[in-house]
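Sync notes, pocket subgroup
Present: LS, DG
LS reminded everyone that the earlier model was apo-only. Rerun requested with magnesium ion included. Inputs:
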Amino acid sequence: MAYPKRVKLVDVGPRDGLQNEAQPVSAGVKIELVHRLQNAGLKDIEVTSYVSRKWMPQMADNSQVMCGIRRAPGVRYSVLAPNMKGLEAALAAERPKWPDEIVVFGSASETFSHKNINCSIAESIERFAPVVAAARENGIHVRGAMSCAVGCPYEGDIVPDAVGRLARTMKDIGVQHVGVADTIGVGTPGRVQRALEAVLATYAIDDVSGHFHDTYGLALSNVLASMELGIWQFDTSVAGLGGCPCAKGATGNVATEDVVYTLQSVGVETGIDLDKLIDAGVYISHALGREPNSRASRALRVKRVSAGLCH
Ligand code: HMG
Ligand code: MG
């Protein structure tokens, strides 16, 4: 099957990318990162999460970051909200500062559900239902992230049936879009396709996306394998940042730079300016005291230096 002509990328760097950072990252740096991403052409940015500050101290400045962003037209800003307390906090600011999309996050693995959000899968759906209803009443789009759709750090392999079941319950409570997440990056192209197919039995192709962590270096292959099924929306993370404290050993998301470079190489449009994106990745990586975890970024910066374009 031919690849889709155009792919939409949601940069989850400010949220998934930074949530796991032990060192403090100021709200100002997070806001500047969002500005640089939108300046690079990203039309979807996952900014922060409204979760317990005890569980996720790095996201405690959620409101400060959301209120500090200078919004660009046509950009959709999303936040995670696992319960009504999270949604109410996200909507406490004046309306122009509200998120355009909220993300409820469940898991296809019972054990991971407990470790991540402290409740069973069934309880999580009960918690999500009023969040979804209230968000939609307020005209806010609702995405459902589905963790451990391929493998779980505690239970091992996850079967597609479990993924399909969760998709059906998400649909029942009104979740509009499902993101199939390989939380610990153990997916292979075939297994990722099976997980996506399980969701596609319930959701239309335009309402399904992929979210692949790159622990074993297969995330990019999994993006391409998803595109073979017609999937055209992916979460990616600038500079390959990311990880979840509840999924020990898992590394960052596939780097946005690597995905953009690959898609450009095969003639798929993303609307993203790769040079500006690379600069955004350098900005946040240097703020964290490291280099971007993206091969394309590294290679293209070496090329820039040899062409005398920078130092
Ligand atoms: P809980 O302890 O079961 O909740 O946590 P609770 O209702 O018993 O409340 C306990 C305390 O948390 C109370 O405060 C609440 O007020 C507070 P205390 O009285 O102890 O001071 N609380 C909140 N505070 C702020 N915002 C809220 C909120 N809710 C309760 N929304 C809860 C349940 C979900 C809150 C908790 O388990 C939590 O915050 N977990 C964090 C999970 C998380 O952020 N994980 C990472 C994101 S998911 C991810 O990375 C996966 C993804 O990338 C896809 C993939 O790769 O798989 C999306
Ligand atoms: Mg993730």
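DG: The pocket of magnesium ion (ligand 2) is lined by residues 16, 181, 183, 211, 213, 242, 244 (CB under 6 Å).
LS: The chain is about 40% helix and 15% strand.
Action: DG to write up.
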